[in-house]
């Protein structure tokens, strides 16, 4: 059996409805669209970065129904009816940064900045899942996306933003 190539005439779209950063969003999307591409290309939320395209680096991390996910590894349609929060959705309406964003700034946890949005989103998830974590727990929970940050003292200090 041979594979049939997809042609422009075969373009199929599916309706998608979800909540992004507290606002209802709906669009017709190609069923193959990744969540990261939907956020960046259709909603212009470019704070969610594409780093490796293989779900390894975490620069595409967003919150999906309150849990951190790598949006390069999630189809947009898998977020149907869900609540998605991106780095742009963390700040208060008056522009005040989320405490974790402030902690990254105050503790110099920014590195070059490219993966910082994903690190912030992942760090919030880590603190939400382990609110009273000690240094050993944080280091044990840190994944490859935290390697540069949590290998340093500043990374552990930012775990408890004030």
* Helicity level: 25-40%
CATH topology of the largest domain: Ubiquitin-like (UB roll)
Reading the helices and strands in chain order gives EEHEEEHHHHH
Spatial separation of the terminal alpha carbons: 61 Å
Question: What can you tell me about this protein's structure?
Answer:
It is a single chain. This protein has 162 residues and is of the alpha+beta class. It has 2 domains: 14-89, Ubiquitin-like (UB roll), CATH 3.10.20; 99-157, no CATH class. It is 28% helix and 15% strand. It has 6 helices and 5 strands. The chain has helices spanning 35-42, 99-106, 116-129, 135-141, 147-150, 153-157, and strands at 14-20, 23-29, 61-64, 67-70, 83-85. A 5-stranded mixed beta sheet has the order 2-1-5-3-4, with helices on one face. A hairpin with a 2-residue loop joins strand 1 and strand 2 (23-29). It is globular and about 55 Å long. It starts with 13 loop residues before the first strand and ends in a 5-residue tail after the last helix. Residues 148-153 have low confidence and may be disordered.
Throw out a few tags for this protein.
single chain, about 160 residues, alpha+beta, Ubiquitin-like (UB roll), 2 domains, globular
Briefly characterize the structure.
By secondary structure, the chain is an alpha+beta fold. It is built from six helices and five strands.
Write the layout of secondary structure elements.
Blueprint: E1 14-20, E2 23-29, H1 35-42, E3 61-64, E4 67-70, E5 83-85, H2 99-106, H3 116-129, H4 135-141, H5 147-150, H6 153-157
Parallel strand pairs: 1-5
Antiparallel strand pairs: 1-2, 3-4, 3-5
């Amino acid at each position: 059996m041979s594979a049939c190539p997809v042609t422009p005439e075969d373009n199929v779209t599916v309706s998608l409805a979800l909540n992004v950063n507290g606002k209802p969003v709906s669009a017709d999307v190609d069923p193959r669209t990744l969540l990261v591409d939907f956020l960046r290309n259709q909603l212009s939320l470019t704070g969610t970065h594409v780093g490796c395209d293989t779900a390894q680096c975490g620069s595409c991390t967003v919150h999906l129904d309150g849990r951190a996910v790598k949006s390069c590894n999630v189809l947009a349609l898998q977020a149907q009816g869900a609540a998605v929060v991106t780095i742009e959705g963390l700040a208060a309406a008056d522009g005040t940064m989320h405490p974790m964003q402030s902690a990254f700034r105050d503790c110099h946890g920014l590195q070059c900045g490219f993966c910082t949005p994903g690190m912030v989103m992942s760090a919030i998830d880590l603190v939400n899942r382990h609110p009273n974590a000690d240094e050993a727990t944080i280091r044990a929970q840190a994944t490859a996306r935290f390697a540069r940050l949590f290998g340093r003292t500043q990374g552990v200090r930012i775990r408890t933003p004030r």
